[in-house]
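Researcher: Hi, I'm a grad student and pretty new to this. My advisor asked me to get structures for two proteins we've been looking at. I'm not sure of the right format, so I'll just paste the first sequence and hope you can take it from there.
Model: That works fine. Here's the first sequence with its structure tokens right after it:
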Amino acid sequence: MTKPQKQGKLRLARDKGELRPAPSIVLVEPQLGENIGAVARAMLNFGMSDLVIVNPRDGWPNEKAVAMASGASLVLDRARLAPTTAEALGAFHHVLAMTARPRESLLPVLTPREAAEAMKLRTDRGERCAILLGPERTGLANDDVNRASGVISIPVNPAFASLNVAQAAVVIAYEWAIADGAAPAPADLVSAAPATREQFEGFIEHLFGSLADARYFYPEERRPVLERKIKTAFARASLTDGEVRTLRGVIKSLVQGRPED
């Protein structure tokens, strides 16, 4: 097998940042190029980029894998081949096997979240971690499972526990991203300036005046309570200046009606 790259040296723009050190995915004897590509896509979606492929049935490189990867070419370009699982895992410090048959092994069984958190601790210490995934039809052989330090078991519906290799990769890759501190990007509010207090209060006065003209505040003694509730509701919305202008236009249209053509 070609010499593995050190995980900490992988660099790629991700949301104007870089890929961080992450576990590797080791695919054992994958049968379909499409599944390899789907795994690569899932990996890069969640900040993983190191892929090892053990004895792929249809050879390598694989055009179907490239097509299915949908742009995750970095993962496929860097993918390493190995003739056996033992050789594929030789450079790793910690290996976890994903399998639907955890009862057949005496190894510790972890949920994907527990596994990701454990690998995060090890990765931060500089250890190289790998996640082992087996062939599509049979899953990992017992000998390959026993090369791992633990088993990752996805808590699926026991009456229908069928996940393909790419689906399993998505689950563990997502949990890795969460363990590594990933979070949704904040909404882009650069062009949406918040309304000033003057704009907000002007809108509220406009609204209350129009409601009073429509005799909404009835009986009159309830007016202070209703005004407070309405104002609080709009205050929680954190309106922008554009939204305030839109709402004042709505009030004006309701009060004056549509102009005649």
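Researcher: Oh nice, that was easy. Here's the second one.
Model: And its structure:
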Amino acid sequence: MARVGVVGSTGQLGHDLVEVLRGANNFEVVALDHSQIECADLDSVRGVLLPLKARAVINCAAFVRVDDCESQAREAFAVNALGALHVARAAAESGAKCVYISTDYVFDGGKDSPYIESDVTAPINVYGASKLAGEHLVRQAAPDWLIVRVASLFGKTGARGKGGNFIETILAKARKGEPLKVVDDILISPTYAWDASEAIAQLIAADATGIIHAANSGACTWYEFAKTALELCQLTAPIEAVPSSQFPTLARRAKNSALASARLLQEFNITMPLWRDALRAYLFEKDHLQA
């Protein structure tokens, strides 16, 4: 049975990834949260990962508060870039595959269709730049590496760094009868953390390498995503489509951050569910819908 370490195991993706890997029955999973390993500290990383003797180490740890990254760039790079380097070096030293979880934010949004793995990266904010730096450092430090980019995650544990997830916020406001204004000029690939986790588990089992996108199929705007959630839950709260200019943010956002999971299908025959189907599955999991 292959031993796999999951760094950042209590995050939105990390939590589901641990459950998926344990359910696969061919992995021995070691869940590592922030209290057990500090990615920004090389001694901490080496002290935990070297004795682990894992086949693969999956680094889900990240500073994900995009706007805070603008004012806390040092911390963002300490976790997302330097931390990635530390994990990659320790993985290389112990003979493990280094799996780094990256993001759609490495792209600038100028493309008029979903981004594929071979598209040129050009981040437009500190968060994206720190994650891209992490990608480069992993590739430099680990001879056996896999970079998996995910996008617009939603999962049952919510994003600890963001205080929940977009869908839960929308549903809570709708049930209170609050009017909703949601951005309709930014294209995304909403991705269910469980689906991304299942894809990652299959990639590790296949000993995949390189850069691979793992996002739910299709693309939509945040407004369409929210509206679909309300419709599935049969909630009739008023919802208005607005331009992103109505919600100015410290960090710039790409107008198109949709991802196409081209390599998943072409090389590994893994099909990611449509985002609408993924959303429905999530709503059932969270008991917002009944079977």
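Researcher: Is there anything I should tell my advisor about the second?
Model: You could mention this: Residues 2-162+191-217+258-273 form a domain with the Rossmann fold fold (CATH 3.40.50.720).
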